[in-house]
Amino acid sequence: MIKKEVMIDYLKQGLSTRDIAKISGESKSNVGYWINKYGITDLMKYKKSEYTDIHYFNKIDTKEKAYILGFTIGDGHIDKRNQFSCSIQLQDREILDFISSEVGCNIQVDKTYNKKQRKYPNASITIGNPMLCRDIQKQFGGRLKQERRIPIIPKHLERYLVLGFFDAEGCVTWGFRKDRNRLWQKISFTSQLHMLESIQKILIKQNIATTIRPKSDSDCYVLNFSDKDRVSMFLNYIYPNDEFIILKRKYKKAQALRLELGEFGEV
Predict the structure, then answer these.
(1) CA distances for 52 relative to 10, 46, 55, 71, 106, angstroms
(2) Could you give the angle at the alpha carbon of 179 between the alpha carbons of 176 and 180, nearest 5°?
(3) What is residue 218's DSSP assignment?
(4) How, if at all, do strands 84-89 and 107-110 pair?
(5) How far apart (Å, rounded) are the C-alpha atoms in residues 68 and 246?
(6) Reduced to 3 states, what is the DSSP secondary structure of residue 233?
(7) Is the pTM of this model over 0.85?
(8) Torsion over CA of 256, 258, 259 and 260, rounded to 10 degrees?
(9) How far apart are CA 72 and CA 165, in angstroms?
(10) By C-alpha distance, which of 53, 35, 34, 30 is closest to 45?
C-alpha cells in the first residue's frame, strides 16, 4: 500500500505508474489501483521527454556540452538496451536541472529513505532517444565504465570537461594540522585508470603534476595532488573567474579553501 500523500507527491513529480512501481516495490497494477482508489487520476500528467536536439552529443562544441559529457562519463549508466540514465543524491539535483535544461529530458525524484536497504533520496534522468544514446555511447567509447575513455575535444573546452568529471568523480578536502597549526589540502579523483590518465594529460598541459595509484580493495584508481601551488592552479583552472559553476556545494568548499590558502600560505 502507498499512502495517498506519497502517491500525490509521485504524480506531481510527473512519474508514470511504471516509475512509481519501481520506486515503491509495488506492482504496476497495484499502483493503478491505489491511484483510482484515492481518486487522483487527474494528476497523471506523465509526459515523454521533449528533447531539444536529438543531435546534441554528436559534436562537443560548447562549454555546456563539454561539462555534461565530463559529468556523464563519470556518473552515467548505459544499460543493455543502450538507454542512458544518471542518478545522484537529491542535494545535488542542480546538476540534473542543468542537464535537463540543455537536453530536454525529464527529472524523476525518489524521496525514499531506507538505510537498511541502502535507499536514499535521489534524483535521476533517463534518455531513451536512439540518436542521443548512440552519440553518447560514441563519445564514451563504450557502454561499460571499464571501456570508456575521455574523448578529445577542443582545447578551450577541456576545462569544462574536467569540471564535469570533477563534479562526478572528484573531491576537494582540506583541514588543519593541530599539532603544527598548519593547513593541509588535497584534490582527488576516483575512477577507471584510462580515464584518469586522460585527465592527467589535460592537467599536465596546465603544469599540474599528479600521481595515480590503485585504490585499495577496489577495482579503480585514485588521481591526486596536495601541494598548495598545484591545488590553487587546479581550482583556478576549473573555476576561471568563477564564471561557470554547476555544483555549488563543491564550489563553496573550493572557495573556502582558496581563502585559507591565501591566508595561511603553503604547508
Answers:
(1) 25, 18, 9, 19, 12
(2) 70
(3) S
(4) unpaired
(5) 10
(6) helix
(7) no
(8) 90
(9) 8
(10) 35
b or e along 41-66 (b: 16 or more beta carbons within 10 Å of the residue's beta carbon)? eebeeeeebebeebebbbebeebbbb
The CA dihedral of 176, 260, 64, 120, to the nearest 10 degrees, is 40
In 107-230 the beta strands, taken as DSSP E runs, fall at 107-110, 122-127, 170-177, 182-191, 211-214, 221-225
Long-range contacts formed by 262-265: CB under 8 A, 24+ apart:
264/182, 264/183, 265/183, 265/228
Residues 6+ apart with CB under 8 A from 34: 1, 2, 4, 7, 26
Are residues 148 and 52 in contact, defined by beta-carbon separation less than 8 angstroms? Answer: no
Provide the β-strand partners of residue 126. Answer: 85
Dump pLDDT digits (tens) for 174-214. 998 877 678 999 999 999 999 999 999 999 999 999 999 99
Q: E strands along the chain, which residues?
A: 76-78, 84-89, 107-110, 122-127, 170-177, 182-191, 211-214, 221-225
Distance CA 3, CA 143 (A): 38
Tell me the pLDDT tens digit for each residue of 105-148: 888 888 788 888 888 889 999 998 999 999 999 999 988 888 89
140, 73 Cβ separation under 8 angstroms? yes
Asked if residue 187 lies in contact with residue 224, where contact means CB atoms within 8 angstroms, the answer is yes
CB burial class (10 A; 0-12, 13-18, 19+) of residue 137? middle
Helix (H) / strand (E) element for 70: namely helix 63-75
